[in-house]
Amino acid sequence: MKSVPRVLLKGRMAGFYPQIWPKTLKNYGPEDGFIALQCIQNAIVVDAKGDVWFGTTAGAYRYPAREDSGHSIAPLTSITNLRISYENVDWREFGADTLWHRPEDWSFLMIGIISRSISLD
User: Fold this and answer.
1) Which residue, 10, 48, 78, 89, could crosslink 17 as a Cys pair with Cβ 3.0–4.6 Å?
2) Domain spans of the chain?
């Protein structure tokens, strides 16, 4: 088993973001064949061909890493909410260290913004 060098994986309900640090970022979702809602924690492996395999709630998903050229602009991201079991939570009821749910029950909501300079030449 090989490790994935310099890769940041950002998961979300509609897919995952493999980021080859610090330059490329792409979302993979249902339109790319990634139909699962969640990736399973620590269920990732790179095969001999360089493809990355993810264990998901809907089975195994193969990411053909060698075919992806990526993007040159990474978005600015901000986490806007944390849900437990897909439900909003009134966080005023909890202390700073009072999360009893398993991490796979957590859903992070986020905003990602890509800003480009426009040339008027």
Assistant:
1) 10
2) 7-67, 76-113
